[in-house]
Design a protein that fits this description.
There is one protein chain. The protein has four helices and no strands. The longest helix has about 80 residues. Helix 2 packs parallel to helix 3. It starts with a helix and ends with a helix. With about 160 residues, the chain is mainly alpha-helical. The chain has one domain.
Length: about 160
């Protein structure tokens, strides 16, 4: 039996049994860790799925907002076009080509600029007309200016040149 004592460890168990128990404990510990990792992995997969759903919802919202933006841009374009037509109609003395712009502010500015141009041209034409104005009817009778005549010419003028 001396061989039998050699195979036993100090606690009295056989070395294979204690090693098996130790390994089974390690396996159980690793199984617990693996289960915890599986649980964490499952939680992360659920979080990813939730985020994917949120991203899909955001993409849908973004598509809806882009559609609304396109609709608003079309409406704005129609409003600006209508405003331009109204500005042309309310300013009949203004050439239609002078009223332009892609926004209400730009159309207002072009109307102001056109009005300034029309006023300037009108003033220049009025000044030109006033300078070229001829009085109606016969000119007023004024005495002849004799100040440039010599005394002999004045005498001849007064006599009426009766020679």
């Amino acid at each position: 039996m001396p061989d039998n004592k050699q195979n036993q460890n100090p606690s009295g168990e056989e070395p294979e049994t204690s090693r098996t128990t130790e390994l089974e404990g390690l396996i159980a510990e690793k199984d617990e860790q693996l289960a915890a990792k599986d649980l964490r992995l499952s939680e992360l997969e659920q979080a990813i799925a939730s985020k994917d759903n949120q991203i899909a919802a955001l993409k849908q919202s973004m598509a809806e907002l882009e559609q609304k933006l396109t609709d608003l841009e079309n409406s704005l374009s129609q409003v600006v076009s209508s405003y331009r037509a109204l500005a042309v109609k309310s300013n009949p003395g203004m050439p239609e080509e002078l009223i332009a712009g892609d926004s209400i502010e730009a159309i207002d500015k072009s109307v102001e600029d056109a009005q300034t141009l029309i006023d300037r041209v009108r003033k220049e034409l009025e000044a030109e007309i006033a300078g070229a104005r001829v009085p109606a009817g016969a000119p007023q009778r004024t005495p002849v200016d004799l100040s440039a005549l010599s005394p002999q010419e004045k005498i001849q003028y007064a006599i009426g040149e009766r020679r």
